[in-house]
């Protein structure tokens, strides 16, 4: 099995969970924008650190199992993992939130009305 096929199988679960969370919790554009920014940050970090680790010869890939496309020294197959993590974790968090309507926007916390705290003086 190639690295791309393995990555595709692994990505199927986060995509399915994200689709279910979007349907169940009615996730809006703000949620998707935040998730997209998270994935973009994870991709940048993955590219930087994968290139450093490959350049330091910390690990190697079987070239026969790669597509041949690279970002620097890192194969594109390595970019599936941060996409999967950046999609799965916010989706699971959205599903675990309490209110089904507008799960990405929380209501502001308002102080509860309390009786007067001070004592009356004569």
Describe the structure.
This protein is mainly α and 122 residues long. It has one domain (3-96). The protein is 55% helix and 3% strand. It has helices spanning 3-25, 29-55, 80-96; strands spanning 70-71, 74-75. A two-stranded antiparallel sheet has the order 1-2. Strand 1 (70-71) and strand 2 form a beta hairpin. Helix 1 runs parallel beside helix 3 (80-96) and helix 2 (29-55) runs antiparallel to helix 3. The longest helix has 27 residues, at 29-55. The radius of gyration is 22 Å and the shape is elongated. Keywords: Carotenoid biosynthesis, Isomerase, Membrane, Transmembrane, Transmembrane helix. Pfam families: Lycopene_cyc (PF18916). Residues 9-92 form the Lycopene cyclase domain. InterPro entries: Lycopene_cyclase_dom (IPR017825).
Notable traits:
Lycopene cyclase domain-containing protein; 3 helices; Lycopene_cyclase_dom; membrane; mainly alpha; transmembrane helix; about 120 residues; transmembrane; two-stranded antiparallel ribbon
* Strand line-up in the sheet with most strands: 1-2
Distance between the termini: 86 Å
Total beta strands = 2
Largest sheet: 2 strands, antiparallel
Alpha plus pi helix count: 3
**Integer average pLDDT:** 82
Topology order in helix (H) and strand (E) letters:
HHEEH
Region (Disordered): 101-122
Pathway: Carotenoid biosynthesis
Keywords: Carotenoid biosynthesis, Isomerase, Membrane, Transmembrane, Transmembrane helix
Protein name: Lycopene cyclase domain-containing protein
């Amino acid at each position: 099995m190639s690295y791309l096929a393995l990555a595709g199988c692994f990505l199927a679960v986060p995509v399915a969970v994200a689709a279910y969370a979007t349907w169940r919790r009615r996730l809006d554009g703000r949620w998707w924008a935040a998730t997209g920014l998270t994935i973009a940050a994870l991709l940048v970090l993955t590219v930087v650190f994968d290139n450093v680790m490959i350049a330091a010869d910390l690990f190697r890939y079987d070239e026969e199992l790669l597509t041949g496309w690279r970002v620097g020294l890192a194969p594109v197959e390595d970019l599936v993992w941060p996409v999967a993590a950046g999609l799965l974790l916010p989706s699971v968090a959205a599903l675990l939130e309490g209110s089904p309507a507008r799960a990405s926007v929380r209501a502001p916390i308002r102080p509860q009305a309390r009786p007067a705290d001070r004592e009356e003086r004569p």
